[in-house]
């Protein structure tokens, strides 16, 4: 019996986190989201609600890596061998998975392990899959990611960027697909991530507990109603959930048709320069994020409001001061002021 999930549409507040997750679903190349915030702010509930907004995916039956039966370019070696031999592969449907990575995880637990003795003895690569294998084509959720060893975080970010996990031991290597959306959470007061690691996340959002008494009361009421009768509560929110599903599905269909003009690219660059953002990763992520935002709003051309919607998520953690200090400086008024300033374009 599968566990009932709290409806995404019934979550009150935390709009920036919800928006960031949705845009990553529309375009996983945004490269994940890092959530700064205190405990008890619906971070985990929000992440786990995402699969209900998506159609089930086709998976090769029995595959340890949840391979896509329709895409040879992302198949593991076992599935690819079967396809190349003309063998019939069975297809099953399943929900996108949300896989948890504990902060105590070792490198072998994350990337998987090779049986060196077996490889030397028989020449067979015997691989024990790790968390990255489970997370392929899903979401990898790391609570308190700042408490993970930097080396482990590096491995996660490398795999997320390349879509492949490669394990090398004693001159023997094994690779498998590892396409996942990385969602990390952290409390900045309990430790930081190195700037080089922060920059690798597509988005960051800072969330706080809700201070509005009416909203807090509504949260308690909704949660109580869900716990008393889950089926009835889920049914009550089904119309809103379906509307959101339709918007996301449409956005995923048209995302590759969305265009961004030179004027909008200049606005992106203007923001990065004004905020003293190092490197070009921020500019590239802004382009991907604005296209996703336009697609979500059923448009095929990026507009200025798309930049306003996503700029804070893209640039907050790339500013030179610490993210929770940057938050005080990077508000929507600052963003609007920068992108509305006159610019001279020279191409």
TrEMBL record:
Keywords on record: ATP-binding, Coiled coil, Nucleotide-binding
CDD domains recorded: AAA (cd00009)
Coiled-coil blocks: 234-261
SUPFAM superfamilies from the UniProt entry: P-loop containing nucleoside triphosphate hydrolases
InterPro entries per UniProt: AAA+_ATPase (IPR003593), CHLI-like (IPR045006), ChlI/MoxR_AAA_lid (IPR041628), Mg_chelatse_chII-like_cat_dom (IPR000523), P-loop_NTPase (IPR027417)
Highest rank taxon of the organism: Bacteria
Pfam families in the record: AAA_lid_2, Mg_chelatase
Protein name as catalogued: Mg-protoporphyrin IX chelatase
Lineage: Bacteria, Bacillati, Bacillota, Clostridia, Peptostreptococcales
